[in-house]
Amino acid sequence: MKVYQPQDPDIISAWRWTDRGLYLLDQRLLPWKETYIRCRTWQEVRRAIKDMVVRGAPAIGITAAIGLVLGAERLRARTRRAFLSGLKRVAQGLSKARPTAVNLFWALERMIKRAEAEGDAGPQELVEILRQEALTIWEEDLSANRRMGRLGAELLPKEGTVLTHCNAGALATGGYGTALGVIRAAVEAGKKLSVLADETRPYLQGARLTAWELRKAGVPVAIIPDAAAGFLMARGLVQAVIVGADRIAANGDTANKIGTYALAVLAKENGIPFYVAAPSSTFDLHCPSGQNIPIEERAPEEVLSCGGRRVAPCGVSAVNPAFDVTPAKFVTAIITEKGLIYPPYSENIPKVIGSENQT
Ligand code: MRU
Fold it and tell me: What is the extent of the structural domain holding 342?
């Protein structure tokens, strides 16, 4: 059996990828069960992203890239031209999985460009090239996280409590994590930090996934109800806030898990630094501001029930935006693998991110 994975993988991974298919750690069942779901077709991969078996912006991008490889393996194209047009159809299908995380579109476009750039390669060779490219995207994301960890760790206090929202850890990325990677790196460097993890209703990424990961990584963590953040900040119990991102506009406006905006406003009110950690693949310089970022609306049932049990009265509906947009003015700094970015973001983002990363 052939196994495709980075040279130096993290202790926690969302995938096992072999020549038998893509095995996704079912994040809906964590922390109770560590079960893998096998995907053999790109349609199964799209469904897994949609249903949040795998989630988190960079992880969605990597999964889509691997999904494209699974689709490419099954194309029965005899010519390079037929192969490329089949590949684009698969990419189009995968791009429908979720709308907000730009990493999904970024990864698919990068894969298509890679295939197109190989002028002489026939279908068989292109499958191999695409497999290598998907693996490279995974590896690059993992090393970007380690680099963000080193750069961002400097910003965190020598001791104290850091608050985070949702899950921006190894499960949401190629490994190590963005926001959680920064916290892990700071703790590995000897800082005495503990973490407050917002439970993150309705999907409970904080209570289930962030707490599970940090425990595995040996970082002290306590879960708080989302609504407790402001009170704890006002009492002086939070020294910094750090979150990930799903899409960062050219002016620094940041889409992330619903509830992030409220946290940023509360941090400002209480004089607490608010950091965003994200790889360059999460920037969308084609979006001038957060107004242009498409925000996913998920099923009302996710809000109306908890732990698989309905909690709201019958006949009542719910509004369930999965993300919100934090205006750039609330963000103290953005941590990327290419460097730390400070305001004014409209000026500094293009300088640090550059256009070569944008598809
Ligand atoms: O709906 P999700 O779980 O995919 O949302 C995830 C987040 O909002 C994360 O904070 C973001 O994708 C960054 S992950 C490094």
Answer: 149-353
Same domain for 226 and 95?
no
Structural domains counted in the chain: 2
The verdict on 56 and 186 lying in the same domain is: no
Q: 261 C-alpha vs ligand 1 centroid, how far in Å?
A: 14
- CA proximity to 181, closest of 28, 349, 171: 171
User: 202 vs 195, 213, 215, 230, 301, CA distance in Å?
Assistant: 20, 19, 22, 19, 10
CATH code of the domain covering residue 339: 3.40.50.10470
**Annotated binding residue 56:** yes
- CA-nearest of 167, 257, 256 to 209 is 167
Q: What is the pLDDT of residues 195-238, one digit of tens each?
A: 999 999 999 999 999 999 999 999 999 999 999 999 999 999 99
> What is the complex's ipTM, to 2 decimals?
0.99
245 Cα to the center of ligand 1, angstroms: 7
